[in-house]
Amino acid sequence: MMSDNTSTTGSCDAYNPRDYPAVAVTVDIVVFTIVNAELKVLLIQRGEPPFLGRWALPGGFIHPNEDLDTAARRELAEETGIHQAPGHLEQFGSYGSPERDPRMRVVTIGYWAIVPDLASPAAGTDAIHAELVAVSEIEGGRVRLAFDHETILADALDTARSRLESTTLAAAFCGPEFTISDLRRVYEAVWNTKLDAGNFQRKVTRSNGFIKPVNQRTSSGDRGGRPASLWTSGDAERLTPPLNMPNE
Amino acid sequence: MMSDNTSTTGSCDAYNPRDYPAVAVTVDIVVFTIVNAELKVLLIQRGEPPFLGRWALPGGFIHPNEDLDTAARRELAEETGIHQAPGHLEQFGSYGSPERDPRMRVVTIGYWAIVPDLASPAAGTDAIHAELVAVSEIEGGRVRLAFDHETILADALDTARSRLESTTLAAAFCGPEFTISDLRRVYEAVWNTKLDAGNFQRKVTRSNGFIKPVNQRTSSGDRGGRPASLWTSGDAERLTPPLNMPNE
DNA sequence: CCAAAAGTGTTTCCTTTACACCCATGC
DNA sequence: GCATGGGTGTAAAGGAAACACTTTTGG
Most buried of the four, A4, A21, A131, B40, by CB within 10 Å? Predict the structure, then answer.
């Protein structure tokens, strides 16, 4: 058994690997994107037990000489076939219940990513069956996930939703140029609400460093309407004042 | 080497422990408390290399059959001698750079805790040299920490500071009964600012479920002054509207 | 009396919200 | 013309910030 003062970081004795169980460390990645004004998450259908056939988050083991962010970036590319750099990639929590994987002790670090509207068909469906699933299907309980991935996804959603309030990350869901309505539809999809278009317009244009004008206009959509101005991401990362999610 | 589809959670082959390096998983705990209106963090002085004599965060390995929260709670008790339950204990990030511990690969899960004003002398100084160090000493660079613990502490501070804005956690720094000025001094210590006493009073008493009256008064302090009413924590966890940190 | 801390009132400013209304396009 | 979406104006309501003022204690 270990004594009270055995630790790598506090006062400690030498570490002997045989004293400790094999712990595997993985990263699991919650990739969000928006398709047709609906928030989707990228999932992989499992090919063997446990949870054969169930949907699961992409992820995998960390390699010997990479840090956690690098592992997340690598797994995102390898497991999903998305080779474009994500618009955002960030840690949000760790999961280490002894029962979370029946095969062995696995501690996983949860990451969430934003990938701008990838052309509808889920990216590299080479060998792996990856698909974009509507978040509402999972929150509504109509699609079930493997392991504790429903908990992990719920935490990622909480994080993403609150990060949109105080950061400029919403723009990462859009392409390099976008209209203010595009941006508003990002908020509406992630928060699952409707926002007042006029107030949103003012709020976003007055916010310092959120978006910059490109001095171009879109052509009108199929059903008419005034052409919108195009904008691009500004330099700010924080949104001051914040854009608050409606209360209920 | 591992193949692209090796994973515990995506589509995967069987896991073979020999394919992976020994990874140790630890929890490191940032314990905050307030002494004399100053924010302090509990540190342990290291007894052997590396970083002999330097201050470090308490922490240690996770055990085979406990989850991460349990490990954090256990290490808090074992390493610091604090046997009272913390007022709050929460994860805030993970750290896994391959170079972060020169002896071996260690991934650590960062936790931050609030312990209400423990009688000034640092708790159980049985075998271990644990002390409360002013956060300002570390942020000012006058006290240096071992490993990447300065980064970890900085992240814990960011988390704690922003959590006070939108949650009722500030009350966890106080004892079971406290005055509104006590509570204000928590905000002032954590945010390192001065707040208007009158506005704070109103804000906190009008906020729903933050604090409840106890219908008692303190005796005046040594230097006179009107006796304050006593309050206790309410049922709410979230603060609506939030109490925003002054801009600069 | 004065100093000190608790607590209330008041005024000013700014943000948010709701919604009316004008603008520029396709059909 | 009409429908549709882009964008501005405006007025009411509410919170935040600054600060004057009252209350209750010790000395």
Answer: B40
List pLDDT tens digits, range A149-174: 999 999 999 999 999 999 999 999 99
b/e per residue, A160-179, with b = 16+ CB within 10 A? beebbbbbbbbbbbbeeebb
Task: Please check whether residue A199 lies inside any domain of the structure.
Answer: yes
Calculate the angstrom distance between C1' of D11 and CA of A248.
Answer: 25
Q: Find the mean pLDDT for residues B94-99.
A: 97
Judgement on whether residues B110 and B229 belong to the same structural domain of the protein? no
State residue B111's pLDDT score.
98
Per-run averaged pLDDT (10 residues), chain A, 248 residues: 39 49 91 95 92 95 96 92 89 97 96 81 56 96 97 98 96 96 97 97 96 89 87 95 89
Task: Give strand C nucleotides closer than 7 A to any protein Cβ.
Answer: 3-9, 15-21, 23-27
pLDDT in the model for residue B162: 95
Write out A108-147 in H/E/C secondary structure. Answer: EEEEEEECCCCCCCCCCCCCCCEEEEEHHHHHCCCCCECC
Domain, as residue range, for B108: 20-164
| Average pLDDT over all residues of chain B | 88
Q: Are residues A38 and A113 in the same domain?
A: yes
Q: Which residue of A has its CA nearest to B166?
A: A162
Backbone φ and ψ for A25, nearest 5 degrees, come out as: -115, 125
Assess whether B177 and B104 both reside in one domain.
no
Closest residue to D23 (CA, C1′): B226
Same domain, A203 and A228: yes
**Position of tokens 């992820």?**
A59
Last residue of a domain, one of B131, B164, B197: B164
Answer whether A96 sits within 8 Å of B109, measured CB to CB. Answer: yes
**Residue where one domain finishes, among candidates A114, A144, A164:** A164
Judgement on whether residues B139 and B202 belong to the same structural domain of the protein:
no
Q: Is B59's CB within 8 Å of A101's CB? A: no
Contacts of A115 (CB under 8 A, 6+ apart): A31, A32, A33, A42, A82, A84, A86, A87
Same domain, B108 and B140: yes
Choose among A7, A68, A240: nearest Cβ to B94. A68
User: Is B15 contained in some domain?
Assistant: no
Q: Contact B104/A8 with Cβ under 8 angstroms?
A: yes
Contact B127/A at CB under 8 A = yes
**CB–CB contact B8 A104 (8 Å):** yes
Q: Is the C-alpha dihedral spanning A217, A218, A222, A225 positive or negative?
A: negative
Q: The pTM is what?
A: 0.90
Nearest nucleotide, CA B179 to C1': C6
At B216 the pLDDT is 87
Across the interface, which of B64, B94, B149 has its CB nearest the CB of A94?
Answer: B94
Question: What confidence tens digit (pLDDT) does each residue in B220-242 have?
Answer: 777 888 999 999 999 999 998 99
Contacts with B, A 74-113, CB within 8 Å: 75, 78-79, 91, 93-98, 101, 103-109
Per-residue pLDDT, A4: 39
Q: How many angstroms away from the CA of A221 is the closest CA of chain B?
A: 40
Same domain, B185 and B125: no
